[in-house]
TrEMBL record:
Protein known as: GNAT family N-acetyltransferase
Annotated SUPFAM superfamilies: Acyl-CoA N-acyltransferases (Nat)
Keyword Iron applies: no
Limits of the N-acetyltransferase domain: 4-151
Amino acid sequence: MPSISTRRANATDAGTVVRFIHALLDELTGGKAPAPDDVRQSAEIMLADAGVVAVIASADDEPVGIMVLNECTAIYAGGKFGYISELYVRPEKRSKGIAPHLLEVASREGRARGWKRLELAAPRQPKWKRTLDFYLRNGFEELGPRLCRII
């Protein structure tokens, strides 16, 4: 297992954030991710938002993954909770404990902020069954599908 460290991303990390989020979107969409410049614009806005926490994971001092947490509020959740909008680990670094480490960082951040829960959306099944199984093994429960409406 590599030595894993994490740190909060800031505005100077926009390039790293863009690289990882673009790779995530490219993987999920089968090569149809938005242009890197569009991802950069969104990343810069996100990194400036106080309700968003981006965490970069490094293994042996090399960036290998990212997680983006958003603070949300809902009555069903009993108040504030965290939503993991993005979590990505470079393919060659997967199954080395990096993603579980990021999930533990999310839990610690959530406890510090008084969140009652963490949520995320797993990609479509059955294609991404391995991803769903990973989250289930790491303490998440299925709540049903999420839907989106572009406005």
